[in-house]
Structure formats: structure tokens, C-alpha cells
Amino acid sequence: MDRPTLEKTLQKFGFKRVFSGKRITHYAHKNLKIRIDPPQEGTPYNHLHINYGGNKNAYDVNLRPVNYKEPAAHIKLKE
Questions:
Q1: Half-sphere exposure (Cβ direction) of 35: Cα atoms closer than 13 Å
Q2: What is the per-residue pLDDT across 27-68, written as a single tens digit (0 to 9) for each?
């Protein structure tokens, strides 16, 4: 999914934008947070992070818990 479609879908499902700046956007719904990031060192593609109950509680694309520093915690977005 591309970024504009993802943002519309998140809002449709009740997520609220809680931060936006320098191409980084945070959405939250209850204890669930989704952060959309631009390409950066070590992750040369647009990606998102799924966190529940705090930044260090990260999940992969299949909603399995992973270390927030692992590549699996950086879910690639369609360009």
C-alpha cells in the first residue's frame, strides 16, 4: 500500500494523526501507534512501525512481536 492510501485507511479505522513533521507521521488509536517514516540510513525505503503500549513494543507485518531495532520492525511501504 502506498503512503497516501495508508493514511486514508488509518483515518477510516479511527486512527488520529498525533504528530506530523519532516515526512514522519504518527497515528494513534487507543494503545496502538503506527509511525510512518521516510527512507533513512539503514532503511532506504518508506516504511512504517507498529507499536503497542510503547515504542519498544514493536510488531512485524504479521503482528508478531519483534525487537524494535530489527529489520522486521521496519515494514516497507509501496512507493
A1: 19
A2: 999 999 999 999 999 999 999 999 987 767 899 999 999 999
